[in-house]
Each structure stands twice: as C-alpha cells, then as structure tokens.
Design brief:
The chain has 146 residues and is mainly alpha-helical. It has two domains: 61 residues, no CATH class; 55 residues, no CATH class. It contains five helices and no strands. Helix 2 crosses helix 3 and helix 4 runs antiparallel to helix 5. The longest helix is centred in the middle third of the chain and has 28 residues. It is globular. The termini are far apart.
Amino acid sequence: MGINNAPVIGLVGAAAACFALFSVLSKTIKKEPLGVVTIYFLTACIASLLSMLYYSKFAFPSSGELIQIFLNGVLVNGFSYVFWLLALRSTEASYLAPFTFMTPILSAFYLIILFDEPVVAVYAAGLLLVVAGSLLTSVSRRARQP
C-alpha cells in the first residue's frame, strides 16, 4: 500500500488547512464557544444539504442513522470543538498544537488494533514527523520565554 491517491491526499490536506484556519480565526472571536460552534455546525449542515442536492437526491436517514449522526455531531464533534475553543482561549495555540498532532497517531493505532489494518511505513514516518514537530514546538516555546 503506497501513497498514490492524489485526490484523497489533496482532500486531507484541504481538511487540515481548514482546521488550521478554523483554529486561527477562532482565537480572534470573543463570543462564547457554544454559540460559535452552533453557528459553525449550522453553516456546515446547510453546505452539506446544498452539496447533497447538487450531487445526488435527497434521502432522509433512517432512525439508526439519525442516532449515529446525532452522537457524532453533538458528542464527538460538538463538545470537542467547544473544548477546543476554550483551550485556545486559555493558552497559546503553539502549546496546543502537539495535541492535535496526536489525532492521526491515535487513528492509526485504532485502525491497526480494532480493524486489523496492516502496519505500513507511512505510519512510522507520520509518527516521527509528529514527534519532531512536537519537540520543535517545545524548543521554540522555551526559547521565546524570558
């Protein structure tokens, strides 16, 4: 298995750029996090609806799917974004950045352990990049402190 799917890699890169933009712009917003996240998710819902209507036909989710959508939207994403905004307000983004780098590492471990995915070299390369980035961030923060 190699890194040969350019559209997927492009989408992952675009998603990372969007999250970075969201984090940077969120730091400047002075409103309370719950309202900001609510507006963000309502906007995303409207964009998703328009995309669905443009590319396919409307299909209402089943009751089981609605439960999963609710759990993912409110519990997994909703609360995590509220906590992320609170964390951004309480400290520097450079201090929090290494924690976001843990997401792909944990995802790879979950895939390997829970879904018997093969261990590929790109996982090790990613882990090394995350550790190196975290160390560089830590060194940079210490150098700026008086």
